[in-house]
Amino acid sequence: MAAVSHKICKKHLVLPYCYFLAQKIVENVLRPLSSSLPTPVAHGNQYFFTNTNDIRKLSNDQSQVQILYTDSDHPQALDFNSCKGSLGIYWISLLDGRIHRGNPDGGGQAEYVISDDVVRPKGIAVDYVGSNIYFSQQTNIRSKGRIEVVSCDGAHRKVLQTGLVEGGPLALDIANGGWRDREWRSYTCTMPTVLTSRGLTQTVKNKVDKIQAPSNVTGLAVDASLNRLYWTSNGEIRFIDLSLDDPLPQTIGTSSVPYGLSASDGTLYWTVLGNNVTSLPGAIYMLVVNGDDDTSPTVLHESMDIHPRDVSISSEITSLDEGCGNDNGGCDQLCFSVPSSTGQGTMPECGCSTGIQEDPVSNLCPRVPTNFLLFGRTITDTLSRISMVSLDTDRDVSVLLPFQIPGYGANYISYDITTLSVYWDEMSPPAIKRSEIDSGEVDTFISTDIRRVSGLAVDPFSRNLYWSDSALDRIEVVSLSSNDRDDIHTPQSLSLDLMNGYMYWVDRESGEPRIERARLDGSERQVFHRGTSHAPTFIVVNPASDDVFWSDDEDGDINTVDSNTERGFPVGAISVHGLAIVDNELYWTDGFDGKIGVATIREEEGEGPEVRRGVTFFENIDGVKGIVAVDTDHFIDNDNLCALSHGCSHICLFNSSAVCQCPDGLQFQSDSHQICTEPDGYAVIALADKTGETTTTYLELYTRSLNILTEMWAPESSCPGGMCTETVDIVSMAIHLRDDAAIDVYYVQRTDKLIYRRSITIGNPESDIGEATPIITCCLATPKDLAVDWLGRNLYWTDSLRGVIEVSLLSGRSRRVLYSELDQPSLLVLDPRRGDLFFTQGDTKIIYRRKMDGTSETSVSICNSVRNCTLHGYPTIVRIVSLSIDFDPSPMFRDKLVWSYWSGTETVTVGYDLGGADSDPHLIRLISPPAISSSLYFNQSLYYSKENSEKIDKWFDNGGTHDVFSLTGIEGSEFTFLDFSIVHPRTQPGYHECTAGEFCTGHHPLCLVQDHIYGSCICPLDSFKTVHVDTLLGQRTEVCTQANSFVILATKTDIYYYPLPSDLTDAEVTSEPRIVPRGNHSDVVAVTYDPYSQSIIWLEKGTNLLYSRTPL
């Protein structure tokens, strides 16, 4: 007898359970294993079923129907069962892609066991023994279905089978340790091969595979008491006897058209969908089955108002004190309760989540695989995700990481092996974000001074992150621990050679595509390979051999260099979106075919590397993008000195030694190349000397480290031999700290009411304040205040008499009226981070806000409309004397708008937090008489000068006042302060798409800031705009073109210039009439154009004078 049993089992490969099963078959003693397992016990026969958009319960006597849970989007299948000893209803919804859990009595909100990465789920079944939930789904439209298992708490999840034609109904054969699905796949001699962590490592066909797979299966159920498998197909209920070696399907007669199916203790239940068109009611049927003596079906419930798809019967589960029921079977993640080899009871078998292999020593499941791939995916127009594929096990399954990425992101990915953190790029708004790989919490790592990431790489030894920004044309590095950053070089794609301390990138903008490299500290920049074929896109370094590979955007080849000779290897790629190498296997993402390819890198001794013909590693990935490979096997903390004690205060970069760097905006102390500190700030001061009969005004430059400013500024200049002075006549001024370490001072001169610019070269002892250059020479009436937009590189000003706010380039070109018909606008300050401008009007005593791009239809007051901008509880405003913004250098943008007003008895300085919602003004400082003439708020300190004062005072937020600049004691002079301004890298932070100059180009365009990322492209009066969109790169470029033809229109109050666009059919073209600025308010009588001087000439009523100006 034993010999016969052994022969049967050897055929089926799996001995212990097969031996037991064959022994019983030969002895013809077919005892179901359910006798040794805990079994469900009837509990009042309550019936649960899915309806169109809700879950319902039919009472014990079938007299009442209770709606338990609503707003369930097309529930497909459900199961009432026990999981971890707790009874509940579990169901899946077709459209929301979630597994729900609810209370059998209803009430409260349903929980989500799984709320992510489930596409078109079809079947669900609860394993009350192993406390797991099995479900089937179709992963996407192009790919096939799969069956998964998840622990009851949703924490651990494993893919059991892939490649199903379509996911469908699912049933568990707890007694025999297996499941059945609609495709009859892999029903093996030992069903635990699917139910357990071994997945599909054993695929022995047996009895069920001999039956031709039925079509249109809508319901599936196992009755362990009868050892039967039931299914509904094509309007019939059929079954087989699982105890027979070669069963034949039998049919159960029914007059209805069954859909969903459930079976328990010799009783069969099914649903009928119903059809309102044919007046067929939805129904739930019951049939008691006693061996071969079937009774007639009984209608439990019938109604035109229901359309039930699935049904499940209430039951109680006996407590489990063995196997997985005892401390999860001692398993770290998943526990599978399988029949023991003796046939008596069950035994636990442990498993890990998809892609994870159990550690053979600790028997624990690690957080991540040893080797794996991460790749980005575009899910929809508004959502991207990152997926992981393990290279250890389950290589045919991808798993979505638990965080979501808005818009088009994850084009570039990197991984920090030390903290198990994933870094990726986002495009709208531009940012670099990170999250631990198994966490749903996302941290915004970089969100300022960033435009378009074109490469991303982590240096885990030095704890730095490198990225390339193709829009800003540079490579930057940031410390992973402190967010301190520095820029290095110009980029396109990026890869690090950590062992040798190099970074490599592609330069496609130099006219000759080439591969460049430099040390990790940015030094020793050199051309690695010149004259690459076609268009190199992505680059990667093989850590095993230091060989460099890159993709070719035109022919799909993978290229490398051998003895300075370029070699291309066709690998079958069409549109490469990323490269990665692990263990001499080269992987690439192909955005055209939606797949990941792989090829082996071979290198014979004395020969260069060779890439073998590629094959498909993973397919059917919609929107696949960037990729990174992780190899923890070969991660060894090397002798990189940055990984040790390096002494750098901010950033440490590896260049065969530890090299300290300072972030942008900081500099090394004079006595150290390790400690970074803030650089000097600069003060430009306008002074009035009233010594003689006439008043002489001076413009002076002073330097001081503003962050440690606690003592008086003596009137010492950066120029040798005295103060850098120039006689001017200042009404108001603004300062711009240029990128080339120079200061531009813009000011309104009192006598001629023109706007001038003077440049000061910092650090040049022979440089004086430069010559005055008039930049706005026409059509100003009473200019009051100036402000520089350092992001858009524009100049704004108010003109009180004309009632306008205007803007131009810093050169004075492309002048535009931004807002008109204002009531005597006066003080002005800009907030480019949010795209706002703040200003005062006439005697309204209110501060108004509008957008810097000119799109605001009305002004918005930031103050209480009843008391104007008077601070509550303090004297009312007589006049507002100053406006300023203190910009917070941190990524939190805790910027503060500050104004000072004279109440008649004292000066009140008020703060308003721009970074918080629903902020209220608050008191900063009360200043005794006389009234202040000018003030500004910088670095949480108030600087101010009183009328006719000889000093500038500084008041700290934490209390105390210090004289920081005093003219007292200068013999023979009577100085007073007219205006002053402080400029410092922290007062003009950030880079912008307007700064980069790629978004808005052509004939003197005006790029107006909308917020800290985006801008609006405005063309000069004489130009029209064309818009070009690169859908592949997701880039939009707006180009201003000077018009050859135009129309000039005159109304009673304004002159309009309308450029006529050329016939451009390949791009979106826009043109609109623009107001020509003019300084007078008289009515226009006539207008003409002089082509020789290219000037507009007009006549005004009552003046008998002709006026003219050029369109620019």
From TrEMBL:
<dbReference type="InterPro" id="IPR000033">
    <property type="entry name" value="LDLR_classB_rpt"/>
</dbReference>
<dbReference type="InterPro" id="IPR050778">
    <property type="entry name" value="Cueball_EGF_LRP_Nidogen"/>
</dbReference>
<feature type="repeat" description="LDL-receptor class B">
    <location>
        <begin position="501"/>
        <end position="545"/>
    </location>
</feature>
<dbReference type="InterPro" id="IPR011042">
    <property type="entry name" value="6-blade_b-propeller_TolB-like"/>
</dbReference>
<feature type="repeat" description="LDL-receptor class B">
    <location>
        <begin position="793"/>
        <end position="834"/>
    </location>
</feature>
<keyword id="KW-0675">Receptor</keyword>
<feature type="repeat" description="LDL-receptor class B">
    <location>
        <begin position="87"/>
        <end position="130"/>
    </location>
</feature>
<keyword id="KW-0449">Lipoprotein</keyword>
<protein>
    <submittedName>
        <fullName>Low-density lipoprotein receptor-related protein 6</fullName>
    </submittedName>
</protein>
